[in-house]
User: Fold this.
Amino acid sequence: RGVRVPILEPKEIVDAFLLRLLLETTGARLAAYVIQPAEVSALSTLVDKTADLVSLEDMSTLRQLNKQFHTRLVEAAGSSLLNKLYEMTTNAFPDWMLYEYMFRHPELLQSSLKREYLEHEAIVEALKSKDPLAASYQVADHIKNLWHDLRTYLNISGDSIQEIEQQIAAMFPNH
Assistant:
């Protein structure tokens, strides 16, 4: 018995990343049109709760709040099908690998979590401004930074990486 840890191939990580990028940026763009002040406030509250979570002991709580933030962001778009697709995608996205890496390299923890906090704040501000393009770009920047961390920390490389970076550049040419 015990815990089984899935072994993900680089192609699976790339696929999950690309789908998350597409779905979450689409969700943010749609949400910016329809989001209500109460939902912006709820997202802001989630971000505020993470401000002081900067130690290894906080990681479990931080992961839960992070998942809630991203899920609520996509839910704010008001599309049940988008929500389902996003849930399937995030279940395949190996963000847990980043947290595991930070456990082994605590010197990276504070700077990484500070960046994440600031990126989440920027996403909320774009939604509050009801700016679909800014919301989409803020989410894209955030997820691209996660991608950079995954590549760096997990030493992912190869042709599929170059392909995905070309696809990202084509999807977000001015950013």
The two ends are 47 Å apart (CA to CA). The helical segments are 10-34, 37-50, 59-75, 80-92, 95-104, 109-128, 132-154, 159-171.
